[in-house]
Design goal:
- The chain is built from ten helices and eight strands.
- It is of the alpha+beta class and 276 residues long.
- The protein has two domains: 93 residues, Orthogonal Bundle (Arc Repressor Mutant, subunit A), CATH 1.10.10.10; 178 residues, GAF domain (Beta-Lactamase, 2-Layer Sandwich), CATH 3.30.450.
- β3 and β4 form a beta hairpin.
């Protein structure tokens, strides 16, 4: 009898635990569904009715979820319009460098050395849905410098890291990127012609070094180079950036140093020339 009661008690406990697990998963799924209704909507904010329609949840449930997400900082409510938008905490999480901890840890000492050699800002970026995302940077110690914001994304066609990555995209992927993001003219020197961009990317593949020549920000130059993984594919790109008045006179040694730094990081990640 004792064994039976014990088994029944365990079974009852398991059922309760399983029920709680299912309930927790159901709530979690609804929370993520609510957040996804914003990430798939490009126009900005949404009203409670619009969120309800996009999630296909009861309005009362949507209200509780939205209220909870607002309190946690993942959503923000406009007091005048009553509409909701993604909050600062969501963007802080989205811009987190956690997925790239190993890459950053390996690249850090090499980028530190590169920065100290020229006293200009050294950067690390990765491909992100047709753009290049800054995931790590060591800023120049000089008062007049180029400083990157971690989490910021920039176009491929007009940045040093962007062009270094774009040089190793297939023609099909490159065309899709251009179709999605265009070739916006950031400065008078920005390349806005796809054929001209292709010619420059071909030169980058040959030399291993890209050059942002006042193309993203006037008065700023940047030299970049791709970082390869063990399988030979491009994992990231690095760059050295600074005011053109200081970068120009050191262009040749900077090009060589950026290329060598990228190669050393690639080797540390398991890359070999044969892999490419």
């Amino acid at each position: 009898m004792t064994a039976k009661r014990s088994q029944t008690a365990r079974s009852s406990k398991d059922n309760k635990t399983g029920g709680r697990d299912k309930s927790f998963l159901a709530v979690s799924e609804k929370l993520f569904t609510t957040l996804e209704s914003f990430t798939s909507f490009r126009e900005g904010d949404l009203s409670l009715d619009e969120i309800t329609k996009r999630t296909a949840l009861p309005k009362s449930t949507t209200f509780r979820l939205v209220n909870s997400l607002e309190k946690c900082g993942y959503l923000a409510r406009n007091e005048s319009s009553g509409r909701y938008s993604l909050g600062q905490r969501f963007f802080a999480l989205a811009n987190s460098t956690l997925p790239y901890e190993r890459l950053i840890a390996i690249a850090r000492p090499y980028l530190q050395s590169l920065m100290l050699t020229f006293s200009e800002s050294a950067n690390l970026g990765v491909y992100d849905d047709g753009l290049v995302a800054h995931i790590f940077a060591i800023d120049s110690p000089r008062p007049y410098r180029v400083a990157a914001t971690i989490g910021n994304r920039a176009n491929l066609h007009c940045t040093g890291m962007g062009k270094a990555i774009a040089a190793h995209l297939s023609d099909e992927v490159l065309e899709k990127v251009v179709l999605k993001h265009g070739l916006p003219q950031r400065t008078p020197k920005t390349i806005t012609n796809l054929n001209r961009l292709r010619r420059e990317l071909q030169d980058i593949r040959r030399t291993g070094v890209s050059h942002d020549n006042h193309e993203d920000v006037e008065g700023v130059e940047c030299f970049g180079s791709p970082v390869f993984g063990a399988d030979g594919r491009v994992l990231a790109a690095i760059s050295l950036s600074g005011p053109a008045i200081r970068m120009g006179p050191q262009a040749n040694p900077m090009r060589s140093a950026v290329l060598e730094t990228a190669r050393r990081i690639s080797f540390a990640l398991g890359w070999t020339p044969e892999a490419s």
